[in-house]
Amino acid sequence: MSTTSARRGGENERHYALVHRTAYTYAEPVTSSYGTAMLLPREIHGQRVHQATLVVTPTPAETAEHRDVSGNRSSYFHVTQEHTALEVVASSLVTVTRRRLDIQAVPQVPWERAVASVSAMRATGKGEQGEGPSSVLAIVESALPSAMIEPEHEVFEYALPSFGPGTPLVRVVADLSHRIRGDLPSRPGATTAPSRLADLLERRAGASQELAHLMVGCLRAMGLAARYVTGYVEAVPSPGRDGLRGADVSHAWASVWIPGGGWVHIDPTHDQFIDNRYVVLGWGRDVRDVSPLRGIVFTPGTGSSLSVEVDLTAVGPEEIRARRGEAVLR
């Protein structure tokens, strides 16, 4: 993983070249391989995707791309050529202009009021501030349990100390993130979440995916709408901290809906609201909704080896222009 200082066109603008490479090696020849990948970043407010390509080797006989129910970019491929190795490389050029959240600028809505708003949406199917049907559906769905984030008494008990009476939700979120960072040190290397959040609380350590699940679980346990978000974070030193862990693996965090403030993203691994060092891939109910790569292979053998490499490199605007020009010419 390499990071360089980017010459930016604006004070808050950062440009990135992102490469996510996944390679499988099989013990016996594979005659057919089906796969779905969620490795191409979203185009959202504060994040512009200039270029995003997915290359599969061997060349697939079929490919397709669609937007899932959450609007994430999902790619499908079917390799029919016999092979003993499969490589999937996602390459993207992204500009991020997202500013770090100013807590004072967010509506200071008490968390109880936010819970009441979510409950009203569930009962009526309507938003209090003119939210459309798709927004209401996304909020209501994000407040429900999911396959990997079930309501557990231990999670509810852990969340409670952050939910003081009348405390603005944005401050509740900040306090909960701070507690998770302090109570459960990040455990790099693992990229899957536990089957039960109670196990994570007992173990008292976890990867970013696990800490994001815990954050989402705590918020949902109190009746709030929360999402699991996946992406990458640039590895740059942060004053007063031991530095950010880099983008040599996928990263994960949480987002919570605040009435009048929209979806607010918080990273409990680094105890901070996200900024222009974060590249968003997608979001869902839990990690299963946004798995980077999954599939089925047909082979007489058993077992395979897997290697994953991620390179998030900060580049200058002139390099973005040059690479975009190359992409047009190819």
Question: Strands, helices and their partners?
Answer:
Layout: E1 14-30, E2 32-37, E3 47-57, E4 62-67, E5 73-79, E6 83-96, H1 111-124, H2 133-141, H3 153-159, H4 169-183, H5 197-203, H6 208-221, E7 226-233, E8 251-258, E9 262-267, E10 272-273, E11 278-284, E12 293-298, E13 304-315, H7 317-329
Antiparallel strand pairs: 1-6, 1-13, 2-5, 2-12, 3-6, 4-5, 7-8, 7-11, 8-9, 9-10
Helix pairs in contact: 1-2, 3-6, 4-6
CATH class of the largest domain: Alpha Beta
Please state the structural category. Answer: alpha+beta
The largest beta-sheet arranges its strands as: 10-9-8-7-11
Low-confidence stretches: 1-9, 238-246
Number of helices: 7
- Tell how many strands the DSSP assignment holds: 13
By CATH, the topology of the largest domain is C8orf32 fold
CATH architecture label of the largest domain: Roll
- Average pLDDT number: 89
Q: What oligomeric state do these chains adopt?
A: single chain
> In one word, what is the shape?
globular
Number of domains: 2
Descriptive report:
With 330 residues, the protein is an alpha+beta fold. It has 2 domains: 14-97 and 291-329, Immunoglobulin-like (Sandwich); 103-274, C8orf32 fold (Roll), CATH 3.10.620. Helix content is 24%, strand content 33%. It is built from 7 helices and 13 strands. The chain has helices at residues 111-124, 133-141, 153-159, 169-183, 197-203, 208-221, 317-329, and strands at residues 14-30, 32-37, 47-57, 62-67, 73-79, 83-96, 226-233, 251-258, 262-267, 272-273, 278-284, 293-298, 304-315. The chain has a 5-stranded antiparallel sheet with strand order 10-9-8-7-11, covered by helices on one side. The protein is globular. The two termini are 26 Å apart. The relative contact order is 0.23.
